Amino acid sequence: MPITVFVCTVDKTLNMSSPLSCVCVGEHLRICPQGYTCCTSAMEETLSNLSRREFEGLVREAGRSLQASLNAQYRSFDTYFTDLLNSSERSLQESFLAKLSSLYSKNAPVFQDLYTDLRRYYRGSAVNLEETLNDFWARLLERLFKASALPQYTLTDDYLECVAKQTETLRPFGDVPRDLKSKVTRALVAARSFVQGLTVSGEVVRKVSQVPLSPECTRAMMKLVYCPHCRGLASVKPCANYCRNVMKGCLANQADLDTEWQNLIDTMLQVASSFSSDPSVDVVIYSIPLRILGAILYMQENTEVFTSKVFQACGTPRVAGTQSSGSEERKKRVNPAGTTMEYKPSPTAGAQLEMQISDVSSKLREMQQYWVQLPAALCSSKVAAGAASDDKCWNGMTKARYLLEVMGDGLASQINNPEVDIDITKPDMTIRQQIMQLKIMTNRLRNALNGNDVDFQDASDDVSGSGSGMCTGESCAHNGPRVIVPKADSTRYYNHPENKKVKGTGTQTHPSILLLLLSLATLLRRR
């Protein structure tokens, strides 16, 4: 058969379903089936590149939609929790100005620094929460003791430092510091890990959605989308199962995210549910002012006993030459009869928390199957033929039924994929790294469920980038939690399946199992 060459222009803005207008002639092509064709070799190459760009654009667009949902939940919860902290601080200021105005006005930085550090911890700064709370009680004790101690004594800085060190042993505030530390730590750890889970999820989606299409998949996409145009069958859509095999092959590495993605979503749902557990997160945060007020009242009621114990521990201070102004402060005590020591949440506050949990949980469940549902989503009715057209669809060769089996999900399931040549022994390293990020984040969240602090490494430079939509840099001190991800080694190792020789173009190498064990041991030590 003679080869006929002709010129035909192609619109480079062509969509997948756009028809190709030209006259059928004969020319052998490298991708499309042999026979009469509407395309030249040059046109085939152009359309092949176009199909690659369009497919990568569809994957990125689907990823952006998922990121937008994660960002919306991030902003919603961040606003809610930040408002909790702000309202709690306002309540403390109002309560103390009404009951202990002089004490508060002279020591306002102590209380302000507490809430500043709580916010910094929530936003991901390297703040030790336990040390922050211990330091608050120590500073408060210094000032209260100085204000309430007998006026005939001179209290030096060294002496007040000794007094502060007695916080744990003499328990001047009763059980409040220990109880408050336990509850506040659990609430803050859960809240911080939750927003970081949303952040890490969004970054995983962004990075995975930018993985380029392999040459084998470019050929498969060209054959799926534009070869029917070259055969003069522009109006014929690909068979649904044919489309699924191509998509499952080209998204095989992405589908391997599914297990760890679902584990992460499940754990985030558990953390979200824990926010309403007794005591709920709003009760814990709103009750901070009353707990501090109750601690001060306890100390005032036991001032003489505590002072005596301090004198035993730190020695009797030097007698002052003149009477201290502290005598006036000692007369200004909280009236126990007019002070409520238990926070009772309003029905509105409880309803707001329940709505917050319900909304975020619903959205998380919707995205739980994202990676295994993506191939079917890209083979929607706009792209592939419906069930009624099984006999009238493009099957990769002609207009007829597609008879081949549909492959499973994931890289290992593609060993016999009839439409895409894949080397299952060489997984995409970018995606494997993101799988490890999901695993580590899940472990952090599980620790947070038990109230264990979460050790994050500031890595905003690594995870920031166009399209992330997440907060990065120092501006996050005002706008929201910083983008920080769990510590992880940058290199991930995987073994070759035995005796599997499959075509492909991967270039990754795989070290021995010993290196894998060493990296896992390092990870366990960090925990």
From TrEMBL:
It is found in: Cell membrane; Secreted, Extracellular space. It is a lipid-anchor; GPI-anchor. Coiled coil: none annotated. InterPro entries: Glypican (IPR001863), Glypican_CS (IPR019803). GO terms for molecular function: fibroblast growth factor binding. GO terms for biological process: cell migration; negative regulation of fibroblast growth factor receptor signaling pathway; regulation of protein localization to membrane. Its main location: membrane. Keywords: Cell membrane, Disulfide bond, Glycoprotein, GPI-anchor, Heparan sulfate, Lipoprotein, Membrane, Proteoglycan, Secreted, Signal. Pfam families: Glypican. One of its GO terms (cellular component) is synapse. PROSITE patterns: GLYPICAN. Residues 320-341 are annotated as: Disordered. PANTHER family: GLYPICAN, GLYPICAN-1. Belongs to the glypican family. Cell surface proteoglycan. This is Glypican-1. It comes from Salmo trutta.
